[in-house]
Amino acid sequence: MKALEERIKQDGRIIGKDVLKVDSFLNHQIDPKLMQEMGMTFAELFQNEGIDKILTVESSGIAPAIMTGLALDVPVVFARKNKSLTLPDNVWTADVYSFTKQTTNHIMIDKRFLKSNDRVLIIDDFLANGQAVLGLVSIVNQAQATVIGAGIVIEKTFQNGRRQLDEQGIRVESLARIKNFNDGEVEFI
Ligand code: G4P
Q1: DSSP state, 52?
Q2: How many domains does the chain have?
Q3: What distance, in Å, lies between the first and last C-alpha atoms of the chain?
Q4: pLDDT tens column, 8-22
């Protein structure tokens, strides 16, 4: 998506060797217009798939997920990150290990909000190692619902998330695909 790539070039900041900070328009301060355009783009990409639910994980996935749900006119559910060790028994859960943050999050979705006949589109802000999306896929599988695909705002192709999802046969659509950070510049595919 051209507008997103331009915004990343203009406002993104590279931290270390593999992290892109986009907090001025994506995951801290939010540009609603850009977010809406992303939602409409995801909706177009998946418009013929009979999607009836959008799934994401808090917190940064929520904004693009809502815009996609609005464009497709379907409900949006976000997995909560559970901090306590005791889990209620009316939830589907998965453990998500973050290589970026080196922490494990227990994510959960109330069983009332995911049914076996749901055709689910997963939306997230970043695809790095794929662990968040795989956690959501695991939850959809537990509910015996169907994963139709994953819509990603920014994919870092030099990490192995895409490969992990390909191995599971999941269709992935990314709005910006970063090839590398060369000399402090973001290079897209
Ligand atoms: P993975 O899900 O693809 O395996 O990613 P990973 O574990 O490496 O990343 C975990 C968290 O870090 C996620 O946020 C993800 O959105 C974020 N992240 C990954 N790469 C980048 C990056 O280059 N830039 C930024 N800004 N974030 C990145 P989270 O822990 O779920 O937190 P939240 O922000 O959604 O609350």
Answers
A1: -
A2: 1
A3: 11
A4: 999 999 999 999 999
Q: pTM for the whole thing?
A: 0.96
CA of residue 160 to ligand 1 center, whole Å: 13
Tens digits of residue pLDDT in 40-99: 999 999 999 999 999 999 999 999 999 999 999 999 999 999 766 667 789 999 999 988
What range defines the domain where residue 80 resides?
2-188
Closest Cα to atom 8 of ligand 1:
100
- Ligand 1 atom with least separation from CA of 125: 16
Q: Looking at the chain, list the stretches that DSSP marks H as alpha helix, in order from N- to C-terminal side.
A: 2-11, 32-45, 62-72, 131-142, 161-167
| CA 59/CA 86 separation, integer angstroms | 21
Q: Probe ligand 1: pick from 27, 126, 133, max atoms within 8 Å of CB? A: 126
Residue 64 beta carbon below 6 angstroms from any ligand 1 atom = no
Gap from CA of 124 to ligand 1 centroid (Å): 9
- Cα–Cα distances in angstroms (integers) from residue 18 to residues 11, 78, 121, 164, in the given order: 16, 26, 27, 18
Q: Which residues contact 98 (CB under 8 A, 6 or more apart)?
A: 104, 105, 131, 132
Does ligand 1 have an atom closer than 6 angstroms to the CB of 126?
yes
Give the CATH number, domain containing residue 28.
3.40.50.2020
